[in-house]
Amino acid sequence: MSTIPSITGTDLSIASLTDLNAYALGFCVTSGGGFAGTSPCAYTVSNGGITGFDATRWLDSASGPSASTPQIAYMPVGGGKVGRLFSAWAEGTDLWIAELQLAKDATSGNISITGVVGNNRKSLVGITVASSPAIAVVGHYVVAAYQLTNDHLDMAVSNDLVSSPTEFTFTPVGGIIGTTGAPEMASAPPALAANGGALYMAWKGFDSAADKAINDISVGQYTLGSSTPVYKTSMAGLSATGPAITYASGEPYLAYCQAGDQHLCTWPASDWNKVSSTYLADTTANPPSVCGSIDGTQLVLAWRGQDTQQTANVSFEHL
Q: The pTM is what?
């Protein structure tokens, strides 16, 4: 396990840089580590494993004092070249997306994040969000999912970033529609994962405007640009916070904070609605983040601990 004690008061986002033997972490610095008074987006990379995240920290002080935890997603380009890393976050009710600048040291081969490509941040005009957005890469496209201020769920899809590498524009799908034809609603930030052309979204349930606190988790599979699911499944009474989702070892995996005792849990799709999830000893009061390990044999979990300093934690967990 890797711990980062100087990061406090923040959720985490983790992504595997699959062809670079590195992991990237996104968070907000609220105090500690010499930073105080604002909550800028922060990013760091660990090379070769899950330790050393705090050695290569890069902060985006221009992201503003009200920035939510920046979510991250990686687009590999192959051929031993550095791929493209994207981040999405909220400032108040505004949704922002940027491409982060990855750099590779010519001598060590280590990867670091050095800024925003072209200093270009893209605001999704006309979209107002209630919480942190999710982000995923599907082929040459970037997808953002978000909870609107009326608690409805929506997704927006970029143009083809190979055809238009220096500028990306996003088109909302117009609201996520459930299998009954009614709009899907969430009571916490949604999560996204992708595999090939399949896109998976997970979210915490919503009962009514008077009671948003139900603990159900729903997962839908979508085709790119569609507002209706290929399939959807819901599981009752699970999560105290918004879930996380990734695709690993041939199927989607959920990670979540268990309702009641706040222990972390992971759960493969092959066991949904069949047997209990994998129950971990660690606890968190915040949504975890999850990705597949680079070698494909494990999950990588990131979460904010409940210790006095609210340490950021990253660990491998067996599939």
A: 0.93
